[in-house]
Amino acid sequence: MPLFRLHLPVLDEIKSKGLKGALQSKTEDIVVRITAGLGLTDVRGVLRDDPPGRPNPRLKPHAEGFWLHMKPTYYHNLMDGLYPTFRLGWLSTFFFAFEILTGVFLMVFYTPSPLVAYENMRNILSNVPFGALMRDLHKLGAELMVAVVALHMLRTFVTGSYKKPRQFTWATGVVLLGVTLVLSFSGYLLPWDQLSLWAVTIGASMVEAIPPEVVGRTVNLIVRGAPEFGAGGLLRFYLLHVIGLPLVGIIALGVHYYKVILHGHSLPPEAEDVGVDTAKRVPMESRVYFMPQILTRELWYVSGLTALLVLVCAFIYNAPTLEAHADPLLTPLHITSPWYFLWLQGLLKVGDKVVWGLIVPGAMTGLLLVLPYFEVGPSRRYGDRRLGLSAAAISVAGLAILSFMGSPWYLVTTSPDQEAVATLLPQTHPGPLREASWEDLSLGSYTAAAWGAAPTRTLQGLLRLFDDELSGVESPDRQGVEGIMLIEDWQTDLKKVTLRVIWTEANGTPHEYSQSVYLHRERNHGGGG
Amino acid sequence: MKWQVALGGISLAALTAILAFLAIGEVNRLAEADRAYAAQAIESGAMEFENLCRSCHGPQGLGTPLAPPLNIAGLFDGARLQAVGFNGTVEDYVRGTIAAGRPVPSAGANYPQRMPTWSQRFGGPLRDDQIDALVAFVMNWEDRALAGGGAAPGLTPGEEVGTDITQALPEGDPDNGRALSEGVLACAACHVLSTAGPAWPPAAGAPGIGVRAETRIGEAGYAGSATTAKQYLLESIIDPNAYLVEGFAAGVMPANFDTRMTPQDAADLIAYMLTLR
Fold it and tell me: Which of A322, A520, A521, A525 to mutate to test the interface with B (most CBs of B within 10 A)?
């Protein structure tokens, strides 16, 4: 008796079918396993758009496979066009996946510690091939995702698709909106430069206001890991960004998708009778099958969008320049929270932090979450929902106004002399002086009023801008305002530029405000990260 | 459907083309970004130097009686490293000194204060990237320092004021004296900006140096040989150990000012000091 017997079924098959036949049947077998139900001929049929056989084999992957389980087998042809979905839900999912892929690339080169995070960012931008491109893609994708998800919710409201039976789908959608916002916000902190630290500090400042004081202090400690952002806060935001929120997002997204399969895509409001939901009863002649039409389109969208995003990031869009290293002791002038939280910053300017920073936004979120459970009017028709649609329009306008109020242009009091200097030397982005051609900054002392006498066009432009800004400094309290720009040779390839504003107070005392910056020949402020 | 397949294919081809195009320029882009960050480090190092280092190491790093010059050939040509017996590179030496400070004075030089520790790793206030920026800034002096551009102009023998306190000095200009004290001679580093030496301006009820010079020579404990206020001030400058003000040790004030100033400089400085009442 042999010790063991080698048994290869494939040998038996070759014996019975011949080599060619056995290979064919093995290949067929593998393809069926990979596609969860489609054989070679079926795949070929899908690619050639042949009519499916009966029973339709193209439904099998939806029933048996994991990935297509999340997709309907067919769509109503009314849902096939741009209206009513504008593909916003699909786009949201696309960006979610896009962010995960670009994010994993960036994670490889990033350590969430204040000691090295900033250095890691520089390394990604100056030492990792395609690192800057990946950062740009991740950042642009994040911004677009916030916009797309918000628009998706607005569209769902406008077409009344949140109504029965899709209340819970809406609620998971609100959770996903929250996840998207906080994902984007938590990612903001990770570069650990001045911009990220302070934008997030402003955004996170309201948790401290939670009454009573002991709760606010505790929640603040939990969020930031210490009274102020530091090693603990960075690690917490990182973990939230790469594990916590994606996990919640994937679960909520799963439920969201499952509900779409369960209830079907809600048809355009005018396509159904009031109070009837016919999404699940699609007549045979109105069906557009996922395979091949929708699948082909989605594959083309994925490749087209990816190419477009890479094109935009390669030649047009740059993620914000890495500012100076985060410094908890130095607040930059005019720093704001990210644009999608500007409305919150605007609310904070309205009044009390507790009422306007916590209760009002909290109530707004809660209201949004339970909206479909109390707004139970049966009709989804636009004509029947004048009140609701008006409320939506007013809310959008309100958010826009609040966002403006959150910006530095509204109710931020800084002295005009600092303002004039900050126009040339802003603290949140490079600005005109740093971006000016280094060679054109000729050594010497120049007065803003005599900008025409400056030796180079660049200097003339800068001085003229300075002069324009200085007109805002002149007031009954401030007489004889004068602006001076002093450019000195400081070191090899290094110039020191000092901007000085001099004026006389009403009581005759002279005053001065000045700020200096050092500019190196090889500092590349525009590109290069 | 066919055009969707075509568009998808075109997109993939376009994506590949863009990435290939980027790949060609990527090496240059990375090198440029590297240079840009090195330049940014020098810029922020310059800012930190002005805020933190200038008060002791002097404007443009030319040194003061409180701390040695950095913008000189000796730091970069290896002379200072040899003097202290340091085997690493100049950059390592600069980084180590800034980060960890100096427990003892370097090379036997007699500076009244020790270099403090600056790195957070050694109890100082600065992060690693700030230390790196300062090092980058100091190292950027190399070209000009080696070319001699950074060194303070020396005095030729014969121009020096010397050590005779009874000599007749020319008429002094107090404004120039003030400029000297805050600039080249850097007296202000110890006598105005810090308490390493007796304060010049009036402070805490005590009168300024101008008044004290007049009263000091009549005091019982005065051990010097000056007979007028001007002589007392000149003696204090060029022969600082002739008489020590209570609370200050011998050798704290550099004893080399007799070779570092002209009689006119001394007259200007004294004229300025006498205005501090």
Answer: A520
